[in-house]
């Protein structure tokens, strides 16, 4: 194969790649291609990216507020008094002081 034939082969393959890329982007070329990609990117940002970021910021702000307040939550159940539950016989706690 001669050098001229190899150069033609490379040009043809580069042209095929450019054609494939152009067709995969919808066949638009030049300014209209750039404008359509800018519009698609803008729509994607305002419909998906921005709301996702806002919800993340709101969740982080809520978590920060919850962390700053004294939100202590007891994780264990209290141990019941065995005398009140009847496990130990005898006199239980009296709530009325008038009975004494």
TrEMBL record:
Residues 59-100 are annotated as: Disordered. PANTHER family: SUBTILISIN-LIKE PROTEASE. Residues 72-84 have a biased composition (Basic and acidic residues). Keywords: Membrane, Transmembrane, Transmembrane helix. This is Uncharacterized protein. The keyword Transmembrane applies. The chain crosses the membrane at residues 30-49. The keyword Transmembrane applies. It comes from Picea sitchensis.
């Amino acid at each position: 194969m001669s050098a001229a034939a190899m150069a033609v082969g490379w040009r043809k393959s580069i042209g095929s790649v450019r054609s494939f890329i152009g067709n995969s982007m919808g066949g638009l070329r030049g300014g209209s291609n750039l404008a359509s990609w800018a519009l698609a990117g803008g729509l994607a940002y305002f419909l998906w990216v921005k709301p996702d970021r806002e919800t993340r910021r709101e969740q982080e702000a809520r978590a920060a507020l919850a962390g700053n307040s004294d939100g202590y939550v007891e994780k264990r159940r209290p141990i019941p008094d065995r005398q009140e539950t009847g496990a130990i016989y005898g006199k239980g706690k009296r709530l009325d002081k008038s009975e004494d």
